[in-house]
């Protein structure tokens, strides 16, 4: 009986799960940043597509809203050391970035 009740509660929520897309600014400098940012975002369960443009600093994220949220994706990227719109990376996470990826003092070159 409990299993039936649980199924009745879960099925409607699964029926309304949809893919959503959002864009956000993500700070970074180079190809290494892009790899790190992409890896962090794609590690979030529910993210189905991710792209970050190094020049514009804009990330486009497609995700399943039944599994994750924009805030969860932003927090994952920030945990990897990259500031995201409304979510700043901790100094500890930022300080772990290679020198060429430390963007807070301006863009660096390789």
UniProtKB/TrEMBL annotation:
Entry GO MF terms: metal ion binding
* PROSITE patterns, A to Z: HMA_2 (PS50846)
Cross-referenced Pfam families, in alphabetical order? HMA
> Which controlled-vocabulary keywords does the entry list?
Signal
The residue range of the signal peptide is 1-17
**Where in this chain does the record put each HMA domain?**
19-85
Q: Is Signal included in the keywords of this UniProt record?
A: yes
Q: What name does UniProt use for this protein?
A: HMA domain-containing protein
The taxonomy runs: Bacteria, Pseudomonadati, Candidatus Kapaibacteriota, Candidatus Kapaibacteriia, Candidatus Kapaibacteriales
């Amino acid at each position: 009986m409990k299993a039936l009740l649980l199924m009745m509660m879960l099925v409607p929520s699964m029926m309304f799960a949809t893919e959503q897309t959002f864009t956000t600014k993500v700070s970074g400098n180079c190809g290494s940043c892009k790899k790190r940012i992409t890896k962090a975002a794609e590690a979030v369960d529910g993210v189905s597509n991710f792209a970050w443009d190094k020049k514009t600093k804009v990330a486009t994220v497609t995700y399943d809203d039944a599994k994750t949220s924009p805030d969860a994706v932003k927090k994952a990227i920030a945990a990897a050391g990259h500031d995201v719109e409304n979510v700043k990376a901790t100094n500890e996470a930022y300080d772990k970035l290679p020198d060429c990826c430390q963007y807070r003092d301006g863009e660096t070159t390789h």
